[in-house]
Amino acid sequence: xxxxxxxxxxxxxxxxxxxxxxxxxxxxxxxxxxxxxxxxxxxxxxxxxxxxxxxxxxxxxxxxxxxxxxxxxxxxxxxxxxxxxxxxxxxxxxxxxxxxxxxxxxxxxxxxxxxxxxxxxxxxxxxxxxxxxxxxxxxxxxxxxxxxxxxxxxxxxxxxxxxxxxxxxxxxxxxxxxxxxxxxxxxxxxxxxxxxxxxxxxxxxxxxxxxxxxxxxxxxxxxxxxxxxxxxxxxxxxxxxxxxxxxxxxxxxxxxxxxxxxxxxxxxxxxxxxxxxxxxxxxxxxxxxxxxxxxxxxxxxxxxxxxxxxxxxxxxxxxxxxxxxxxxxxxxxxxxxxxxxxxxxxxxxxxxxxxxxxxxxxxxxxxxxxxxxxx
Length: 375
What we know:
- Helices cover 24% and strands 39% of the residues.
- It has three helices and 21 strands.
- The strands form four sheets. Strands 3-10-13-12-11-14 form a six-stranded antiparallel β-barrel. It has a five-stranded mixed sheet with strand order 17-16-20-1-21, with no helix packed on it.
- The radius of gyration is 44 Å and the shape is rod-shaped.
- It starts with a helix and ends in a 17-residue tail after the last strand.
């Protein structure tokens, strides 16, 4: 009986040892297979980094001003007799805008013209008598002065009547009418604004540190997003001779065409000023940058070796220092060299050592002068 139990125990020990050895071998095989397993390649797009030159620019906020702009008014008091314009309309230089009642002045003009005619007759008569040595030279001079005074009086009244005709001093666009027929106007009361809108000025301030890169004739790009005007090119036409002591900024004025009158005086606009050309930079699409609080990085495609020593196309993460951006592109100051193949889409699913499959049939936007789709 005892011998049978010992044989049974020995058999059980042998079986358990065999199972243990089998499981150990199975676990070792699974570990080896796991170590040798590689995930399938991730599909990505890439671009070969190259050096390019960007224009050096900086942006400021400017304000639109009319080259010529006034609020028309009467310089003499009177009652509005006629309104010859339409609010918001265009007028030519010299066009009559409004007219004040001048009946009293016209009556005075008739009297002054009669007095002038009489003075001329007296002067002619005295001239003939003087030629016959009937009157003295002093009497002729007095009559001549009276004739000139009569002529001057007529001219004065005519000028007064003309001043009651309000005319446009230059061609432009009128604003909203501020008077009505029959309204009594005091001298200087506004009638309607008048603005010349093509071309227009854009006034803006720049820091004194940027003044050295500016000059008359330099190109500027002006954009007004609120009206979807798009970009309009202008040129600097004046730089103020003094620097503001409070802000240390200098006022600059640019002139640009405005054929459709979309830019109006008083509007705020974005002004991009070009000061030169930057040194060569490595420019990448913004989609290639993996932004993170601990540092920005990109993934560079390179040849890597797997655990078995077999080569494959994979990626390595490189931390980069970024510069300015233009459109869809960002300048990389350090971390990437010209000629490196950089992943431009799919960076969120990558890690160092990951295998990749490059498919550039569809590329992300990479335009240094990109514009919004609805512009």
